[in-house]
Amino acid sequence: MAITLDRPRTGARAPKRRSWAPLWLLSPAGIVILAVTVAPIVYLVFTSFTDYDQRSLFTGAYDAVGLAQYTSLLGDPAFWASLVRTILFTAAMVVGSIAIGTGVSHLLTRLGTVMRYVVTIVLIFAWGMPNVASSIVWKWLFQPGYGVVNWLLTQTHLFGDMTNTAWSNSTFLSYFSIWMLIVWQAVPFIALTLYAAETQIPIDLKEAARLDGASEWRVYRTIVVTFLRPTLLLVTILSVIWDFNVFNQIWLVSQGGPDSSTTTLGVYSFITAFVSFDVGKGAAISVVTTLLLVILTSFYVRNLLRSGEDL
Fold first, then answer.
1. Which of 86, 72, 77 is closest to 256 using CA atoms?
2. For the chain, which residues make up each domain, given as ranges?
3. pLDDT digits 0-9 by tens, 256-286
C-alpha cells in the first residue's frame, strides 16, 4: 500500500493569526486614561450645558440650559476682561521668559566647565521646585513688615521706606511680583533647551564669519539665531500654552486681587465654580479655555510635523 504525503506548496504563506496580546497589555493603561482623563472631560463638557450650582450639590437636581450657558458667558463683560488680562499677561511672561532664557543659554556657552556645571545645577534645582512651594516662599519674600525683598529695597534708599508695602494690594506690584515668579520658573527649561540646541551649531561657521570681520553680535544674529529659530519657535509655543494656563502662582500670591485686577481665565473659572458655586458657568469657562489651548497646540503639532518630528 503506497502512502503519499502532500508537500506544502512552495511560496504559499500560512494565514496570519491576529494576536490580542498587545491589546490586553495596553488595556490597564487605557482604562486608567479613560477614568482620569476622558471621563472628567466628558463630564466637564456635559456640566457646561447645565445650570449646576450650589443647590445641585445637595439635591443632585439641575436643568439642561444648552447653548444659553455659552450665550450668557459670551455676553459677560467679566469674561472678556479676564480673557484680555490673560492674553496680555501671557504675552508679557512669554517675552520675558524667552528673552532671559536666550541670554542665559548664550551665557552658558561662554562659561568655563566648572561654572557651566554650577549654573546648570542651579537651573535644574530651580526648574525642579514645585510651583506651589515656590509660590508660598515667593509670597513670604514680599510680605509687608518682615518681607526680605521689602527690607532690601528699603536698604537701597531708592524707593523710600518699603517695609510695610503690601505688594498684593497694588495692581502693578501684584502683576510684577507674579511676572517675576513665573519667569523665574520658566527660564531654566528655556535656557537649557536653547543651550542644547546652540551647542549643535558647527563651530566652523562662526570661525569663518569672524575671519571675515563679522562682529560677535553679527555672528550671533546671523548664525546662532538662524540655527536656533526652530527651537525658539517650539519653546515659544510651549511657553504660550503654559503661561496661558497659569493658575497656582496667581491664586497663591494675589488670589485674583486687588479688585479682580489679576483675575485671569483660570482664576475666573475657579472663582465662578468653587467660590460662587456656579459650577455650570465655571465648566463653560473651562471648555472655552480648553478650546483656545487646543488652537494653540495645533500650531505646535503643525510645526512638529513640518520639522519632520514624530508625534
1. 86
2. 78-308
3. 888 888 999 999 999 999 999 999 999 999 9
Q: Contact 134/222 with Cβ under 8 angstroms?
A: no
- Determine whether 195 is exposed, middle or buried from the number of CB atoms within 10 Å of its CB (0-12, 13-18, 19+): buried
158-187 b/e (C-beta count within 10 Å ≥ 16 → b): eeeebeebebbeeeebbbebbbebbbbbbb
- Architecture of the domain defined by 78-308: Orthogonal Bundle (1.10)
The three three-digit cell numbers of residue 59, written as one number: 439635591
Give the distance from CA 179 to its chain's centroid. 14
Q: What is the pLDDT of residues 109-138, one digit of tens each?
A: 999 999 999 999 999 998 888 989 999 999
CA atoms of 252 and 135, how far apart (whole Å): 6
pTM listed for this prediction: 0.83
Cα separation, 278 vs 288, whole angstroms: 16
